[in-house]
Amino acid sequence: MGTLEWVAASIPAVMWVGLLLAPWRPWSTRERIEPDPHAGSADLSEITVLIPARNEADVIGLTLSGLQSQGSGLQVIVVDDQSSDATAQIASTFANTRVVSGQPLPEGWAGKLWALEQGKAHVRTPMTLLLDADIQLQPGLLAALLAHKRRDNRQFVSLMADLRRTSFWDRLLLPAFVYYFKLLYPFSISNSDSRLIAAAAGGCILVDTEALQRAGAFASLRNALIDDCTLARQVKNAGYRTWLGLSRGVVSLRPYGTVGSIHDMVARSAFTQLGYSTAILLVVTVLFALAYGLPFVVLGWPEAWRLGVIALVAMMASYLPMLRYYGMTFAWALLLPVGAVLYLGMTWSSAIRYWRGVRSRWKDRTYST
């Protein structure tokens, strides 16, 4: 076996073992906040919850019920973003909840950011909780989040939601979605003072209202499709400290269930994540081929098959902490390469949409290139 073949056989093993040994541990689930069962009735009078809602009648009641169990003094503003269903009517039945009727979407704005911009004008408290309309907080979560924010002296803290897993496709793809997000935005680096990486999960963000204002939110990022990470970047650049973690107490109510629905969620921003760069897309494709495809090829090489085994074992080992965190069996690690192929295909689909003139499509709105 020649030197070139040995080098090729070593590439995936070096990639996966290197990932496991990386000091920032992108595969780890150590950055987390869980609900405090002993929180009781916490004083949350310093927080206003800002919820953009467009046609969310099926979930908004559960979201608002979850907020009422968090503590006392919490104020809630629901911005009804031109809904055609009963979103506003349902929201108006909850105590301490103000419904703001959203104005038509101006040119150059993303819908969610325009709704948040309108709601921000009504916030009078030192802190703002940005919460998606399909996110339910478990009792004690907001108290734990607030305590962490104060203890760690952060001005911006966010939590990635626990995505519903009700089908085979959910279990195959949704934990992997979080896994890949952590590889792309290592939490430990994002949570450090380094400005190399700034990341957030837009479903649940607790931020100082002053930090929002100084960062120019939301007008300064009005056309951003990956609004959470863009906001984290703006806040970090303004000199504030950010933090991002996982939580099982932030529950997504959004049902997926099929490959098609997960595809729509991923494809709306995947190519945006790559900066609309065809060159980067090609690089990512090659990296996926080396990381997920080449180990199986190497297994068939008589003199180097052990390197293929090392690569596959390290690959699956890197995924096990995520599976353990979400209470899934280790057997799902065997299907990680299948999920990788599907995610790569969704990224190419996102790119094809862009080349056809569509930046994104979401909530019955199309954002053109």
Category by helix and strand content: alpha/beta
Count of distinct structural domains = 2
Order of helices and strands: HEEHEEHEHEEHEHHEHHEHHHHHEE
Strand order of the largest sheet: 5-4-2-6-9-8-10-7
Structural commentary:
Residues 48-213 form the Glycosyltransferase 2-like domain. This is Glycosyltransferase. Keywords: Membrane, Transferase, Transmembrane, Transmembrane helix. The chain is an alpha/beta fold. It has two domains: 3-27 and 261-368, no CATH class; 42-256, Alpha-Beta Complex (Spore Coat Polysaccharide Biosynthesis Protein SpsA, Chain A), CATH 3.90.550. It has helices at 3-21, 60-68, 87-91, 111-120, 141-151, 168-184, 187-190, 209-214, 227-237, 259-267, 270-273, 278-298, 305-325, 336-355, and strands at 42-43, 47-53, 71-72, 75-80, 97-101, 127-131, 135-137, 156-162, 204-208, 242-252, 358-362, 365-368. The strands form three sheets. The protein has an eight-stranded mixed sheet, with helices on both faces. It has a two-stranded parallel ribbon with strand order 1-3. Strands 11-12 form a two-stranded antiparallel ribbon. Strand 11 (358-362) and strand 12 (365-368) form a beta hairpin. The radius of gyration is 21 Å and the shape is globular. The termini are far apart. 41% of the residues are buried. The model has no long low-confidence stretch (mean pLDDT 94).
Task: Based on the model shown, name its key terms.
2 domains; 14 helices; 12 strands; two-stranded parallel sheet; Spore Coat Polysaccharide Biosynthesis Protein SpsA, Chain A; globular; 369 residues; eight-stranded mixed β-sheet; alpha/beta
